[in-house]
Amino acid sequence: MLLAYIEQNLNSSLSKKIEHQVELIHYDYHIRTLKSEYFQHKPNEYQRQLMKQICQSKYEQETSEREYEFLKQQITYYNLPSQSFESSTITPTGEVTKRELIVRQTKRYQIQVAALTETKIPDSGVCV
Question: What is the pLDDT of residues 4-23, one digit of tens each?
Fold first, then answer.
């Protein structure tokens, strides 16, 4: 029984890692395409700075929205009547998963901001 539980969680973890890598490859392709299209228009320095500011603002907005949703969920969870100190069983794995999701999404937006503000298209080092 314990072995089956370990195998199931290991497979789930491995599957999530693979899905995450595939997602990163898709994002990388999308970023490169957008970047290529953007630089075909030959933006001047002012336009580049403006794009950088827009991307930074969008990144901050998305991060704030995700943090807000996460905190809202936490408040709802801890305000439930069943969450008293006597009956509380804290499961940090769920919280870690949500935080990891926020961190991953934040990193994706950072990559997008960096990709749109650079003048060269660097090799991302992502292997297919």
Answer: 776 677 777 777 888 889 89
Give Cβ neighbours of residue 56 (< 8 Å, ≥ 6 apart).
113
Task: Report yes or no: 59 and 66 within 8 Å, Cβ to Cβ.
Answer: no
**CA-to-CA distance for 120 and 54, rounded, in angstroms?**
19
Question: Alpha-carbon distance 56 to 115, whole Å?
Answer: 12
CB 110 within 8 A of CB 60: no
Which residue did the predictor score with more confidence, 16 or 1?
16
- In angstroms, what CA-CA distances link 76 with 71, 109, 111? 9, 27, 32
